[in-house]
């Protein structure tokens, strides 16, 4: 459920029927101006969780000062990566979600906010969504912040399964950053990626640490500058994310 809002300059609830997803989608918008920030929720979480977990509170000073405007979108992870449909359909449903973001959410943001920049961020699986779409579309996004993310969902880890049950195709490849980043050779795309402001942050005891180290190494190998921070402990909880958004957004 949606809890009471923090004291911000503006809080707005949005809902519309998405042609891409063929269902209603909801969103919360915080603030009136500043750099727009597209915020993805964690695994199977909702558009209001960043507010409920006080992560929006942690950004309230910048929001009230007009430095950032935050757009918290909803998740369909239970219909894609965490559904019981065949794995080839899971990635297709994810691509429909990406279409919703690119063709509906981004134009909505651009209509509301004329700032030239557009940041994309998320925590845990939300970091995957942010990093994946940001790296695939560097002419749309200008800043990427991935917090506690996993960047290859085909890799089995302790307590975390391969979300495609061994299935692999071109769509899966081009939506797993740790798969497609090492293969980027196009100079136009490389130059676009090198203009991005990229931050990756992970906890030292987080099971996704090797995934983050691999992504950082791959970005270094193709000459894409970025910031890579390793925090103490696991740092995979809202209390850490509240600190991270203050530092990196």
UniProtKB/TrEMBL annotation:
Gene3D superfamilies tied to this protein: alpha/beta hydrolase
SUPFAM superfamilies cross-referenced by the UniProt entry: alpha/beta-Hydrolases
UniProt-listed InterPro entries: AB_hydrolase_fold (IPR029058), Esterase-like (IPR000801), Mycobacterial_A85_antigen (IPR050583)
One of the Pfam families matching this protein, by short name: Esterase
Protein name, entry field: Esterase
High-level lineage: Bacteria, Pseudomonadati, Bacteroidota, Cytophagia, Cytophagales
């Amino acid at each position: 459920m949606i809890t009471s809002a923090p004291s911000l300059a503006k809080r707005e609830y949005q809902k519309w029927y998405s042609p891409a997803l063929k269902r209603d989608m909801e969103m919360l918008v915080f603030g009136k101006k500043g750099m727009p920030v597209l915020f993805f929720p964690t695994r199977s979480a909702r558009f209001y969780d960043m507010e409920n977990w006080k992560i929006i509170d942690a950004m309230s000073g910048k929001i009230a000062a007009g430095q950032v405007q935050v757009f918290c979108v909803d998740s369909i992870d239970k219909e894609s990566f965490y559904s019981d449909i065949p794995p080839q359909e899971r990635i297709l449903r994810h691509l429909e979600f990406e279409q919703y973001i690119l063709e509906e959410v981004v134009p909505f943001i651009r209509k509301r906010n004329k700032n030239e920049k557009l940041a994309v961020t998320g925590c845990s699986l939300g970091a995957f969504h942010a990093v994946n779409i940001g790296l695939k579309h560097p002419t749309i996004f200008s800043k990427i912040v991935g917090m506690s993310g996993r960047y290859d969902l085909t890799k089995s880890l302790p307590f975390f399964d391969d979300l495609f049950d061994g299935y692999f195709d071109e769509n899966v490849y081009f939506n797993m950053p740790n798969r497609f980043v090492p293969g980027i050779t196009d100079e136009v795309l490389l130059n676009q990626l090198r203009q991005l402001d990229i931050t990756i942050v992970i906890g030292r005891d987080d099971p996704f640490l090797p995934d983050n180290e691999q992504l950082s190494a791959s970005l270094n190998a193709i000459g894409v500058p970025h910031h890579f921070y390793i925090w103490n402990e696991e740092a995979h909880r809202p209390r850490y994310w509240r600190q991270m958004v203050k530092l990196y957004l």
